[in-house]
Amino acid sequence: MRATMMDYPLTLTHYLERAGTLLRDSEIVTRLPDKSLHRYLYGDFHRRARRLASALARAGLKRGDPVATMMWNNYPHEECYFGVPCAGGVLHTLNFRLHPNDIAYIANHAGDRFVIVDDVLLPLFEKVRPEIAPERVFVVALSGAPVPEGYESYEDLLATGDPDDDLPTPDERDACGVCYTSGTTGRPKGVVYSHRAIVLHTMAMCMTEPFGMSQHDSVMPVVPMFHANGWGLPFAAAAAGARIVLPGPHLDPVSLLDLCEAVQVTFAAGVPTIWNGILQALDAEPERWSLDLRFRTAVGGSAASEAMIRGFDRHGIRTIHAWGMTEMTPLGTAALLKATMQGLDEDAAYGYRAKQGTALPFVDMRLMNDAGIVPWDGETMGEVQVRGPWIAAAYHDSGELGDKWTDDGWLRTGDVATIDAEGYMKITDRTKDLIKSGGEWISSVDLENALMGHPSVSEAAVIAARHEKWDERPLAVIVLKDGAEADADALQSHLAAGFAKWWLPDDYVFVDEIPRTSTGKFLKSALRERFEGLLVEGSGGG
Ligand code: ADP
User: Fold this and answer.
1) Which residues of 325-358 are buried (b: 16+ CB within 10 A; e: fewer)?
2) What is the secondary structure of 177-223 as a DSSP string?
3) Which of 180, 297, 499, 508 would bridge with 188, disulfide CB 3.0–4.6 Å?
4) Distance from residue 148's CA to the centre of ligand 1 (Å)
5) Ligand 1 in reach of 427 Cβ (< 6 A)
6) Which tens digits make up the pLDDT trace of 223-269?
7) Helix (H) or strand (E) run with residue 85 in it
8) Ligand 1 and 309: CB distance under 6 A
């Protein structure tokens, strides 16, 4: 028998048209640089995104041409998320927190023809502009100031388009977006997404599990829209018809909480650093904000500690721990309790929720170590390998494929994990951060999570320090909470309750802050440079 279904293309154009018809009364709220709120409906968004698509086509954009954005999370960025792909272009979201040299490298490597930039980011863009050669640069005037000379205005660009122009019909396998990895090892590498990958990823995100987004939600991506497609939220929220809440440049805890209260956010997503700050603000003033009772968050990018998940539960906010990467569009797993686990005792339940979780539909996952495929016993560690329809099969224009893909077609994530009998994956490290003590692996992430469970500790990073006898030993770098006190002995006894003796750090260093990457993760390479010699006699460190 042969299937009798239509071969209907899975493209973002469908979601855009749906936004303009069935969902036209849903809202998009943006916090502008002056902190006022800009609000409009999907109906307006749809017309403007179509205008943008038409204007880009009239300006000569060809199928597959990249259009870069250097923008905060705001409504014109949401317009670009749909307008560029629906014109047949490829949305290239530039990470403006990178060094200007890296931004220039990325823009040149992608071959960006047009750039759309927020006026408040122009001082940054000016540092990159001499190194790149876009044909045209359009400025989004969000701060109210006129567009400076030498630039064109985004609004003028829109005025040249006609929302009623026919849109091209992309092939579902056409490129629609590109994100570069942050390049912590080697040069940044481009991951090029297809319409089909984004559409399938969007559908999976909107399922009741993991995130169950709907028109009844107010969805706030705190994660920047330049970071791995804003974790897919600008697409998924629009497909679901949720109110989309974009915080602009105001990412401090109080501003975010004020916004959550003002528009009754029900779902937000960001890295643990952001949530740590928010939790401390809530702990300090538990009665200050009146938040929606359905409020839940997706936390990922680096590990969310059990202490944080418990902390938010105390405020009635449910944390969903999730894992993914740029190469995975990005979502791979989420930690929700299975129906059969509802009766678990509290500690066991938190144990599962603090893991990175189970694979989404269409994400195949396996662990490999030197001995081959690792059993799902919750103990044996191996490298996580994945495959699926929204997982990269190569990098853009990269000579160095290296060993990122296995011979049988799986992506090597560079993460080391265990998977338990229920299928819950738990990251223990990135391969490059593992601590190898006397040939045995010690998980820096487990130690960090436990340390961050100590009431005096705000942040903890555990790194491999060189050791004469054991090659490497764990060294803990600690940031204490404001006004809190705890010394190495106190932290060591805190850990001793839960870990084998040989896992305990050999030393503790107290610092004011832990350096971060452009996406808010601990920059362990910088800590290693500074402290890795600390345990070796005579080599100082510091
Ligand atoms: P970068 O390489 O710039 O950090 P990504 O943002 O794509 O790029 O990061 C992906 C990596 O982030 C994963 O491979 C993993 O190491 C880490 N990561 C993501 N989510 C989690 C999580 N929930 N827990 C621990 N690590 C995570």
Assistant:
1) bbbbbbbbbbbbbeeeeeeeeeeeebbbbbbbbb
2) EEEE---SSSS--EEEEEHHHHHHHHHHHHSTTTT---TT-EEEE-S
3) 180
4) 38
5) yes
6) 999 999 999 999 999 999 999 999 999 999 999 999 999 999 999 99
7) helix 75-86
8) no
- Per DSSP, 305 falls in state P
Mean pLDDT of the residues in the chain = 94
C-alpha distances in angstroms, 484 versus 74, 252, 454, 458, 480?
A: 37, 22, 11, 9, 6
Q: Is the pLDDT of residue 124 over 90?
A: yes
**Beta bridge partners of residue 177, listed in sequence order:** 91, 193
State the distance from the centre of ligand 1 to the C-alpha of 427, rounded, in angstroms: 10
Q: What secondary structure does DSSP assign to 435-456, as a single string?
A: EEETTEEE-HHHHHHHHTTSTT
Pocket-testing residue among 97, 179, 385, 415, ligand 1, by greatest number of atoms within 8 A of Cβ = 415
3-state DSSP call for residue 262?
Answer: helix
Q: Is the CB of 31 under 6 A from ligand 1?
A: no
CA of 98 to the centre of ligand 1 (A): 17
Strand order across the 425-430 sheet: 372-373, 364-369, 382-387, 411-419, 425-430
| 539: exposed, middle or buried (Cβ count in 10 Å: 0-12, 13-18, 19+) | exposed
- Residue 448 Cβ inside 6 Å of ligand 1? The answer reads no
- Between the CA of 167 and the centroid of ligand 1 the distance, in Å, is 36
Kindly give the distance from the C-alpha atom of residue 124 to the centroid of ligand 1, in angstroms, as a whole number: 26
Q: What is the pLDDT of residue 469?
A: 87
Any idea which residues carry the catalytic annotation? 181, 327, 436, 441
Distance separating alpha carbons of residues 300 and 323, to the nearest angstrom: 5
Q: Quick one: pLDDT at residue 44?
A: 98
CA atoms lying within 13 Å on the CB side of residue 437: 17
Position 393: which residue type?
A
Task: Give the residue whose CA is nearest to atom 1 of ligand 1.
Answer: 182
> Is the pLDDT score of 370 beyond 90?
no
* pLDDT for position 540: 46
Give the tens place of pLDDT for each residue, 484-501: 999 999 999 999 988 989
Closest ligand 1 atom number to CA of residue 356: 23
361 pLDDT exceeds 80? Answer: yes
Residue 428 CB–ligand 1 contact under 6 Å: no
Q: Are 376 and 424 in contact (CB under 8 A)?
A: no
Q: Identify the residue whose C-alpha is closest to ligand 1 atom 26.
A: 302
* Ligand 1 neighbour 430 (Cβ under 6 A): yes
Confidence of residue 538 (pLDDT cuts 50, 70, 90): low
The answer to whether residues 101 and 70 touch, using CB atoms and an 8 Å cutoff, is: no
Q: Is the pLDDT of residue 355 over 60?
A: yes
Say how many Å lie between the CA of residue 217 and the centre of ligand 1. Answer: 26
pTM: 0.91
Does the beta carbon of 415 lie inside 6 Å of ligand 1?
yes
| Average pLDDT of the segment spanning 171-199 | 90
